[in-house]
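Q: Predict the bound structure with 1,3-dihydroxyacetonephosphate.
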Amino acid sequence: MLAARTIVDEILDLKRQRNAIILAHHYQDTEIQEIADSIGDSLELARRAQQFDGEVIAFCGVWFMAETAKMLNPHRTVIVPDRDAGCSLVDSCPVDQLRAWKARHPDHVVVSYINTSAAVKAESDIICTSRNAVDVVNSIPKAQPILFLPDVNLGNFVKKQSGRENMKIWQGACFVHATFPARRLTAAKLEFPNALVASHPECPEEVLRLSDYIGSTSAIIEWCVKHPGEEFIIMTESGVSHSLNRRAPGKKFHFVANEQCNCSECPYMRMNTLEKLRDSLHDLRPHVELPPALMERARLPVERMLALR
Ligand code: 13P
Ligand code: SF4
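A: Predicted complex:
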């Protein structure tokens, strides 16, 4: 008797028929990460999209990440399982407000976090991610004033690391990371006194001050895997536990709940499901569409970032 076809079989068949690649961010559900061709942070996934030469990119992440993949692949189809997979940081920086900010500071260079809309990228000089933000800012001459947007916590972290005084920072925040309270981290440190703390730079400054390591999602995973320590408190979305447990099976990882959902999951990232992924590969919808001129302008600052090694 033939075994029943599972949804994973259907996805893999559709992937072959479509000549597609499945990219998944670390914040996706485990079952999506398990069938992905590549799992990564936003910088790694942008680089993976840049190297792609098939026909369809199924981007299991949030919309701005898929837009970035589309800018790098204007003639390919980029689909996302759920069109509503947004980002509170993107929402915190409408392009008209950025234009007004730029008009008040015409001599400033605009450094935008990748968590921005295509329209905001098109108004930017260079893009950064949480992994390379300090390097991107350090690549700009010291005397050059900077507008950094939209994440206030990442901005303050970069300002401190780079020692830049002439950097103005937008006051946006990620509603997942910015609501991790330092007092809950302090309580976790008391409960697990041997644990080291690894945090994403979108966390509040008080959380970062209590951390042993600060880095992007992939950088946190790499640090925990390599570190001789056995126990860690992880201050980011709990989807990273998939790679942490796979790559460091003997170690313990604890997560702290935020005040937004009393959990540590990004509700946007978690909108994607296997069923929606299958349907999007079948229908090639929802897919990213951007006006060609906007896409052209937005791609330049992304390529400037990717050219930095
Ligand atoms: P990474 O750049 O670490 O993947 O982070 C993206 C993100 O959205 C963090 O909330
Ligand atoms: Fe955006 Fe925060 Fe979700 Fe990352 S975790 S995608 S910054 S809302």
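A: The CA atoms of residues 31 and 207 lie 30 Å apart.
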